[in-house]
Amino acid sequence: MKPLLSSDKIRVRDLQIVTREAMGRMKEGEEEKTKSYTALVWTQRPIQKEDIGFIDEIKDLTLGQKTPLRVLHRRALAVRQRVIHSMNARYVDDHHFYLRLKTQAGTYIKEFVHGDFGRTKPNLCELLKTDTDILELDVESVDVDWPPAIPE
């Protein structure tokens, strides 16, 4: 099947009707799904080259995340283990850098950056030993092998 919609901005592929069983398989695979993000981060103290290098070296960091305060009114209070597979930083100026992350699906990125009053551990504030906050957040990709490709 050819793409139903295509432009330089949007492309739809593999559009199909899926069974309940296929949806169940997708839900089962959510824990394995990864997402990639880019965030603009502010730091209270000026950041150094060493900070950028330190961030780039962190791999497979396991977080304990309590349900964030911002979603507590609609989600049960729980502590969830999530993994940040990789991070890298790009210096902008003394108090700003771009942070690219590849994470396990379900990771609360904003709370990882600012700590959510200690509800996410470890968090970027602890790692960099300064207050940090997130100014922008973009989802770059959702990496999941679903739905099944339709042969052309």
UniProtKB/TrEMBL annotation:
Transmembrane segments: none annotated. Keywords: Isomerase, tRNA processing. It is an enzyme of class 5 (isomerase). GO terms for molecular function: RNA binding; tRNA pseudouridine(55) synthase activity. Residues 7-143 form the Pus10-like C-terminal domain. Signal peptide: none annotated. The keyword Membrane does not apply. One of its GO terms (biological process) is tRNA processing. It holds the Pfam family Pus10_C. The keyword Isomerase applies. Gene3D superfamilies: 3.30.70.3190. Its EC number is 5.4.99.25. Belongs to the pseudouridine synthase Pus10 family. This is tRNA pseudouridine(55) synthase. The gene is PUS10.
